[in-house]
Design brief:
- With 401 residues, this protein is of the alpha/beta class.
- The protein has two domains: 271 residues, Alpha-Beta Complex (2-enoyl-CoA Hydratase, Chain A, domain 1); 66 residues, no CATH class.
- Helix content is 50%, strand content 13%.
Length: 401
């Protein structure tokens, strides 16, 4: 299968891509010319100057190519790993620089080339002579130092998949495809009909998982918070802005100026700029543990707040019940369940009003003014009433005789 057919098959099969301007990159590749390309015409794996081996990384990044197609705008991860190994075996080489101008490419294959970089016996740095986007940034950030030309574009950190749907086109030409399948995942993601919600979710989950690995990889390599990287949402930056954000270390005009690798057969770390595989993995675990700890602390805080809220509610309910019982005792009344429920639902102000209205009003005789006794207050009415009653009784007795 030729390279063009393989790339088309992978894209149609929803291969995870980390690439900026995929359509433009594919359009710029002369696949017909590549099909006639002779292995004997391959360019050198690298050039050496003052002990520094410069390996070009160009165009679309793919897992592997059958030949060296870098001059045509295609670089294979497996091929690149071979070049790094060759440079490690070359006694004239003391350090390695990856000269990158690429918009990215496949996610598949990145783990292999980054492992090769980590295991290199000779120090490896990156110089961005053009752009370094997406998978190319994943690759470049794996080295001990990143320098870019001032005109370079940096970033586009993220991944995606492409899905092509042909149902509208088929309908336009009077064709309709029916699928009879044994389960919803059989013939899933086909192009003949719209994606189902489950299919969309499955594709998005794959993208999110791969993107999380990308974010944590950059976070570990560049000492930038993974949440900050995710918040950029795949944005691209100028070299100046990228340096400000911590995505690159320096700006220079050429590989020679950018290269500051120590001329030795070891891979030293300078000023905390590089990180071996074990340290990178440890950093990723540390970031993941920190995130998990934050999530757990938030959950614990919510649980504590709920306990406090329930305790307060129980205390208020107990206090209100005691007030209801006292009101019943003071008024000599027995409240119905509905009345008790209504009392409990009231706020303090409402209950105070209800409590006031429920208590009977005590009727008191008016107090006499100071210095005025009862006889004076009744103005002799009680004495007069007594004399009248006595006369009535006497008349009754006289009549009875």
């Amino acid at each position: 299968m030729n390279l063009q057919a393989k790339i088309k098959r992978d894209i149609d099969s929803h291969a995870l891509m980390s690439c900026t301007g995929l359509e433009h990159q594919l359009a710029s590749i002369d696949f017909k010319a590549l099909s006639r390309y002779d292995d004997d015409d391959s360019e050198a794996a690298y050039t050496v100057e003052n002990g520094v081996a410069t390996i070009d990384v160009r165009g679309l990044l793919v897992p592997e190519t059958s030949s060296d197609y870098r001059s045509w705008g295609v670089t294979g991860y497996a091929n690149l790993a071979d070049y790094i190994q060759q440079a490690n075996d070359d006694y004239t080489v003391t350090s390695i620089v990856l000269d990158i101008d690429s918009g990215g490419g496949y996610v598949a294959g990145l783990d292999g080339i980054t492992e090769t970089i980590y295991q290199s016996a000779k120090p490896i740095e990156t110089f961005v002579s053009g752009d370094m986007y997406s998978a190319a940034y994943w690759l470049g950030a794996s080295t001990s130092k990143v320098t870019a030309s001032k005109q370079s574009g940096i970033g586009s950190i993220g991944v995606y998949v492409v899905h092509t749907e042909e149902s509208g086109w088929l309908e336009r030409y009077g064709e309709k495809v029916s699928l009879f399948r044994s389960g919803k995942w059989k013939a899933a993601f086909n192009s003949f009909m719209p994606l189902t919600d489950d299919e969309k979710q499955r594709l998005q989950e794959g993208v999110d998982e791969s993107a999380s690995i990308f974010f944590n990889h950059v976070a570990a390599q560049r000492n930038v918070d993974a949440k900050t990287i995710k918040g950029w949402e795949g944005d691209v930056f100028t070299a100046v802005k990228a340096k400000e954000l911590g995505l690159i270390d320096a700006i220079a005009d050429s590989v020679a100026v950018s290269s500051s690798t120590n001329q030795s057969n070891t891979n030293p770390k300078t000023e905390g700029e590089s990180m071996d595989l074990q340290e990178a993995q440890a950093k990723i675990k540390e970031l993941e543990a920190s995130e998990a700890k934050a999530v757990q602390e938030a959950a614990d805080a919510k649980a504590a707040a709920l306990v406090a809220q329930n305790a307060l509610a129980e205390s208020q309910a107990s206090t209100r019940q005691a007030a209801i019982d006292k009101l019943a005792a003071d008024t000599g009344r027995e409240f119905t369940d509905e009345q008790v429920t209504a009392f409990k639902a009231m706020d303090d102000a409402q209950f105070a009003v209800a409590e006031f209205m429920a208590k009977p009003v005590e009727v008191k005789a008016p107090e006499l003014p100071d210095g005025l006794d009862k006889a004076q207050a009744t103005n002799g009415r009680e004495g007069g009433e007594s004399k009248i009653l006595a006369a009535v009784e006497a008349a009754k007795a006289q009549g009875a005789k």
